[in-house]
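Same chain as my last thread, 224 residues:
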Amino acid sequence: MTESQSTAEQPAAAADDSLGGRLRAERDRRGLTLRELARRLEVSPSLVSQIETGKTQPSVRTLYAIVSELGVSFDDLFAPPGSAERRAAPSQPSGSEGAQPSAAYGRVQRAGDRAVIDLGSGVRWERLTTWNDRDLEFLYAIYEAGGSSSPDGSLMRHQGREFGTVITGELGVKVGFEDYVLGPGDSIAFDSSIPHRLHNDGGEVATAIWIVLGRYHPAQPPDQ
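reply #2:
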């Protein structure tokens, strides 16, 4: 057997299913170099490289910037590249004609089967739907003690509206110039275009149910 034959018969390398691997695949799919993406994000190429190779996890703020630049949703990152879910994920607005997502993927998301993203700064997201819905992010959010969506003194903003309710622990939420501390059962709603930050300054894990509506198709808020 020749060397070329041996090489040709080797199985293809398995796709990298890590968060960094999925981000790298999306960047490659758009023909962006690592340095070009870093330039657009105004971060160092080293940081992008470390995220893509799994040496560091992005903060919520950094991940928002990356997915916005790449034009993908967070839901896209929960599903492995090339999977049936990625190819067939519903993208039509609510109420449009066609099969309902639940018919294809099931209505019930079992707790032990949730798709997960582990982020830097002590944050973990677990998706609460069985399908990829670009109009809605429905998440079980976990903030470790000291965890935050962005570094202290740094806020983030994006399109859409957010709704959250705390299940356990205490979660600090800064919206604009206002600071709130939410305990179990407390809830909050705000326009995501207002600079904001979520943080857990307590000594125990905080968990919450979090919804982001209209990040890609901005929903109009109700009349004031």
